[in-house]
Amino acid sequence: SPSDPDLVERARAAKEKLGDKVFVLGHHYQRDEVIQFADVTGDSFKLARDAAARPEAEYIVFCGVHFMAESADILTSDDQKVVLPDLAAGCSMADMATAEQVAESWDVLTEAGIAEQVVPVSYMNSSADIKAFTGKHGGTICTSSNAKRALDWAFEQGEKVLFLPDQHLGRNTAVRDMGMSLDDCVVYNPHKPNGGLTADELRAAKMILWRGHCSVHGRFSLDSVNDVRERIPGVNVLVHPECRHEVVAAADYVGSTEYIIKALEAAPAGSKWAIGTELNLVRRLANRFAPEGKEIVFLDKTVCFCSTMNRIDLPHLVWALESLAEGNLVNRIEVDKETEAFAKLALERMLALP
Ligand code: 13P
Ligand code: SF4
């Protein structure tokens, strides 16, 4: 438990023994008990950049989910080892696009005669295989903090975008930030023949959105927004772009986890905020800003942690750090060379976005 002084001391001692050999990254959705040992915290974009900027660390311990550890492995050198403290920390959204399904979708686009006009843009929340597919077909990766810039870039390269795997981030960015209409978007369902779309529908679309979503952010509804506005007059509603379109459309502010933190840092004393993102982060921010007189509540009435983010707890972190300190490399995440080469191409296109 977070208050277990024995575990806290063991984590501290193992980290001290490892010294500069280890660098611990923590995503904003991680538990407090884990975040206290992170050398750096951030959103997916910041953590990808920070992992790449630590060539002296032999071990990168990634407190986050599997696709983030894969991305860190792709962006670091071959002799650096990336460790995920619990291998079961996946992401249900990333799992919604498999390599086979995506290859099949490309055949569908080819048969409709549009593959040459399509640029794939894949959300960071995807497997290394999907990132490799993206790199191979001239596309880029994006995160929730640079999705607009990624789409701007993609529409300079081609006329259409295949957006993987989060339909909400794709739709919200297209409609809210790029001035497209909902009619410019179609949803490709990998469980239906031809994605459930006719060739004419595919030809007419500008944004082909993969039918994936985040189950955590999917729980916020228009009712959650209306309820909180009634409950707390004058409240500012701030949500993550993984939320459904009607939630984003009804919110006052929309942005990545890093954006959410910056917005609350800049908020005046006495302001009230309802936040639509993962609960570990919202609780941490509520506690941090309460002394400054900022009232911060969770957007929904029922709690929602990301269960896979939460798999990384203090016992797993202690186990990983102590194993490394004893010279045992555990839970290494290693992407194979061919996948890595193409995935890196796509990730580097993202890092080079203006
Ligand atoms: P960001 O940290 O990029 O906002 O992403 C949120 C998320 O859901 C990560 O899984
Ligand atoms: Fe995946 Fe959603 Fe959890 Fe992020 S919050 S890791 S998108 S399931």
TrEMBL record:
<keyword id="KW-0963">Cytoplasm</keyword>
<protein>
    <recommendedName>
        <fullName>Quinolinate synthase</fullName>
        <ecNumber>2.5.1.72</ecNumber>
    </recommendedName>
</protein>
<keyword id="KW-0808">Transferase</keyword>
<keyword id="KW-0479">Metal-binding</keyword>
<feature type="binding site">
    <location>
        <position position="306"/>
    </location>
    <ligand>
        <name>[4Fe-4S] cluster</name>
    </ligand>
</feature>
<feature type="binding site">
    <location>
        <position position="214"/>
    </location>
    <ligand>
        <name>[4Fe-4S] cluster</name>
    </ligand>
</feature>
<dbReference type="Pfam" id="PF02445">
    <property type="entry name" value="NadA"/>
</dbReference>
<keyword id="KW-0004">4Fe-4S</keyword>
<feature type="binding site">
    <location>
        <begin position="123"/>
        <end position="125"/>
    </location>
    <ligand>
        <name>iminosuccinate</name>
    </ligand>
</feature>
<comment type="similarity">
    <text>Belongs to the quinolinate synthase family. Type 3 subfamily.</text>
</comment>
<keyword id="KW-0408">Iron</keyword>
<dbReference type="InterPro" id="IPR003473">
    <property type="entry name" value="NadA"/>
</dbReference>
<comment type="pathway">
    <text>Cofactor biosynthesis; NAD(+) biosynthesis; quinolinate from iminoaspartate: step 1/1.</text>
</comment>
<dbReference type="InterPro" id="IPR036094">
    <property type="entry name" value="NadA_sf"/>
</dbReference>
<feature type="binding site">
    <location>
        <position position="27"/>
    </location>
    <ligand>
        <name>iminosuccinate</name>
    </ligand>
</feature>
<feature type="binding site">
    <location>
        <position position="144"/>
    </location>
    <ligand>
        <name>iminosuccinate</name>
    </ligand>
</feature>
<feature type="binding site">
    <location>
        <position position="91"/>
    </location>
    <ligand>
        <name>[4Fe-4S] cluster</name>
    </ligand>
</feature>
<keyword id="KW-0662">Pyridine nucleotide biosynthesis</keyword>
<dbReference type="GO" id="GO:0016740">
    <property type="term" value="F:transferase activity"/>
</dbReference>
<dbReference type="InterPro" id="IPR023515">
    <property type="entry name" value="Quinolinate_synth_A_type3"/>
</dbReference>
<feature type="binding site">
    <location>
        <position position="44"/>
    </location>
    <ligand>
        <name>iminosuccinate</name>
    </ligand>
</feature>
<comment type="function">
    <text>Catalyzes the condensation of iminoaspartate with dihydroxyacetone phosphate to form quinolinate.</text>
</comment>
<feature type="binding site">
    <location>
        <position position="257"/>
    </location>
    <ligand>
        <name>iminosuccinate</name>
    </ligand>
</feature>
<feature type="binding site">
    <location>
        <begin position="240"/>
        <end position="242"/>
    </location>
    <ligand>
        <name>iminosuccinate</name>
    </ligand>
</feature>
<keyword id="KW-0411">Iron-sulfur</keyword>
